[in-house]
Model the fold of this input.
Amino acid sequence: MKINDEHKDHRYPSSMRVSDDTLDEFMALYQAEFRKDISREDALEMAIRLVNLYQLIMRPLSDERSDCATPHSEDRRDSDTSFQAAE
Done:
């Protein structure tokens, strides 16, 4: 996100600034998807929350948890609880 002093919000880190162009694009996408206009203030808050969510889910897993989540790890489910093909 580009830094823009016009959109300073002290609730978020200084690196979380949204350019006017990015905010306009977000507002247009929101309007197209939900058929509802939103204020620049609401759009800014939603955009920052979306980026925060993305950053949260894209964090690497801890070593302990990553063993279970890799596609090459062993299947840790009980064979009794595995999904079976419908006959």
Q: What stands out?
A: Residues 1-7 have pLDDT under 50 and may be disordered. DSSP finds three helices and no strands in the chain. Residues 1-59 form one domain. The CA atoms of residues 57 and 83 lie 27 Å apart.
